[in-house]
Description:
It contains eight helices and four strands, in the order H-H-E-H-H-H-H-E-E-H-E-H. The chain has helices at 17-38, 44-60, 69-94, 104-114, 127-137, 141-167, 206-209, 218-223, and strands spanning 66-67, 176-177, 187-188, 212-213. The strands form two sheets. The protein has a two-stranded antiparallel sheet with strand order 1-4.
Amino acid sequence: YKRMLAEWSGNYANAPLDQLALYNCGDCDVTKRLEARTAPHVNLELLKVYINTAFTLDKMEETGPLLDLPAVEEVEHRIGKPTASLARSLRKLADNQDFDPDSNKWLAWLLFDKLKLPEINGRVTEKEELALMANQTGSKVPLMVSAYRRLQKVRTTLASYRKSASMNNGELHTVWWLTGAVTGRLRSGDKETEGVVNLQNLHGNPIMQNLVVSDVDWREALEG
C-alpha cells in the first residue's frame, strides 16, 4: 500500500482519496496489530503515568530557570587562571607545546609512554583509573589531569549555559525525556538542538547550582 502513494510522497494532499484511505487503513492495521502483540507486556498504570507526565514536561520545556550572569562571570574569573596553569604544567611535562590536555589520546601518551606510569585498565584515563594510578605510584600527574578536567568541565558547561540564556531571554532551556535512565529518573538535554542544556546533573555540582536562580535581581531583593 505504500507503493501506491510513492509518487505523492512529500505532499499527500494531492493524492487520490481512495489511495489515501487505503494507506491510512494500512497504518491503522499495523498499529492495532502492534498493540495486540505488546499489550500483555505493558504495565498500563505505568503507561498512564508516562502519558500524564508528558504534558507536564511539555510545559516545562517552554520556560526554564534563570542564569545569574554576574555569578557566571565571577566563576569564570576564578577558575580561568588555575585551568590555564594546569594546562601549562601538563604541556611542560609533555615537553611539547602542541600537547592537548583535552585529548584522551594525548593524555594516554603522556601518562603511559612519556612518564611510563602503569596501566590500570588498559590505556584508560578515566577518573577511577587516574585515582588508582596516583595511589599506586605516588605521582601527582594523574591528579593534575583530574583537576584540569573538573575545571574544564565547568568552563564548557558555563559556555553552553551562556549560549542557552542568550537564546532564551536569560533562561536555561532543556529537553526532558521520560525514559533513558535505568534508575527511572528523568533524562535531560539534546545534543542536536542548539541552545538546549543538560539540567539533570545540577544536584551533583554546587558551583553550577549557585548559578541558577528564580530571580536575576535576587541581590537587590535581599538588600531591600
